[in-house]
Amino acid sequence: MRYYSDGLFLINLIKNRINNHKNIYGKINLNTRDRFSQNALYWAIKYKQINNIKLFLKHSISQKVAPNLDALTHAINIGDPKIIELFDKDYNPIALSA
Hints:
about 5% strand; single chain; mainly alpha; two-stranded antiparallel ribbon
């Protein structure tokens, strides 16, 4: 397995794989990871790239974004309500602040 060290590069790599291989979707690896075993979804969450997060989720990228870290937990750590909502449909920021 090839590992990548740049999170933005990894995001673009996976996005290009999706966009360029729509007809052979089943044959491409969307779960390529960087040298720390973080996938493109990890970096899209970290950089708050909501459109890329939605794209990756639509194409069933692994929600295990890093060793011992799932996407929802990572989104909660980032603290962006719009991103948390993508993973937790029951999330209600208004109820939490009341």
